[in-house]
Amino acid sequence: MATLVVKIGTSSLSDAATGDLRLATLGGLAETLTRLRRKGERVLLVSSGAVGIGCARLGLKERPASVAGKQAAAAVGQGLLMSIYDRFFGALGQPVAQVLLTRQDLMDRTRYLNARETLGELLRLGTIPIVNENDTVATEELRFGDNDALSALVAGLIEADWLILLTDVAGLYSANPRLDPAAHLLPEISEISESLLLSARGKSTWGSGGMASKLEAARIAAMAGVTTVITEGSTPQNIVRILAGEAVGTRFRLSGPRGRASLRKRWIGHGLVPTGTLQLDAGAVEAVRSGGKSLLPAGIVAIDGNFEAGALVRLTDTGGHEFARGLVNYSSSELAKIRGHNSQQIAAILDQQGPPKTAVHRDNLIVWS
Ligand SMILES: Nc1ncnc2c1ncn2[C@@H]1O[C@H](COP(=O)(O)OP(=O)(O)O)[C@@H](O)[C@H]1O
Ligand SMILES: N[C@@H](CCC(=O)OP(=O)(O)O)C(=O)O
């Protein structure tokens, strides 16, 4: 029995020019997911489209620029979206459930665990949960904004085997296929390099994430041991072929941790939003990345951001490449005083009693490349 999270983007749900819903796609999706559910697979759908469909209903020709405008459009579109899903899935006797999440829900550990329990119960009850960001209440600073990252976090939360991202192109291309006619489909990706990220800039008219955010989603999913595939939304029947092992779209074979990173570590890495950055020297990078060691203040070269002890920070090498995240044991102002110093010196600088602390303890670190 496999667990899969299928994410469908605005570009696949509605026609960019007319705003009309793509009913054949929605119907095919309902048929395919219902069939998989009947075979015993656990299926969860992450659906975008609230803003786009809300705009179409309101007669707006483009996405509102203001936050309030987008949030109002989402409030119009979300109910419409669910009523359509309920009619399509309901016609096949398949119950669905609406789940709206915000970034804060996944940042707060109790709410994160609660969301996991509820989703688990909905799957046990035989429903197909349909998840979207709770756009109407999400605040700008802490929005997912697009559903690619949300779907990857949800896939990790329910320990899915697959994350299938349905979009309006056949997969990831060597360049944006809408701009470069010579672009070719990349069937398999084993590493997300900087140049790959550069080639993935750009998005469809109504989509909000674009290809780059799908690459980031694949990376988050890999940390949780989930395999990501990007494929065309107009043929949702392809999901069955993907599960059968056929090469369809772009499949990501990224190296994650050995086995799945623990739920707590995944929450540290992706549920929380980092508030600062620590740049490390080569020795510290090696110790944390390959040696599985805690980070000591001696290995910190530079500190960026203002944060308190307990905050989540990014760890980068001197070239700025982020390779880990973790919860710090000192505030940014303390770290500024003790960076580069050894443990004996730190006790004197901070006038502290007792054994010196690590900057980030290995139990509070998640390392990804
Ligand atoms: N390298 C690339 N390969 C494929 N598509 C790309 C690439 N770079 C940019 N894109 C754009 O990404 C779009 C899909 O992302 P997005 O608009 O966010 O869709 P969705 O609504 O499905 O999330 C494509 O329509 C294409 O214009
Ligand atoms: N929560 C938003 C998702 C925004 C969006 O357009 O995302 P996507 O089409 O997946 O790039 C909505 O429902 O409109």
TrEMBL record:
User: Where does the protein principally reside?
Assistant: cytoplasm
Its recorded name reads Glutamate 5-kinase
Q: What class of enzyme is it?
A: transferase
Q: What does this protein do?
A: Catalyzes the transfer of a phosphate group to glutamate to form L-glutamate 5-phosphate.
Per UniProt, the keywords (alphabetical) are: Amino-acid biosynthesis, ATP-binding, Cytoplasm, Kinase, Nucleotide-binding, Proline biosynthesis, Transferase
Catalytic activity of the protein: L-glutamate + ATP = L-glutamyl 5-phosphate + ADP
Q: Which domain of life is it from?
A: Bacteria
Q: Which GO terms describe its molecular function?
A: ATP binding; glutamate 5-kinase activity; RNA binding
Set out the biological process GO terms recorded for this chain's protein: L-proline biosynthetic process
Instruction: Please name the pathway.
Output: Amino-acid biosynthesis; L-proline biosynthesis; L-glutamate 5-semialdehyde from L-glutamate: step 1/2
User: Domain PUA, which positions?
Assistant: 276-359
The record's subcellular locations are: Cytoplasm
Is ATP-binding tagged as a keyword? yes
**Family per record:** Belongs to the glutamate 5-kinase family.
Instruction: Name the positions where substrate binds.
Output: S48, D135, N147
Name the Gene3D superfamilies for this protein: Acetylglutamate kinase-like, PUA domain
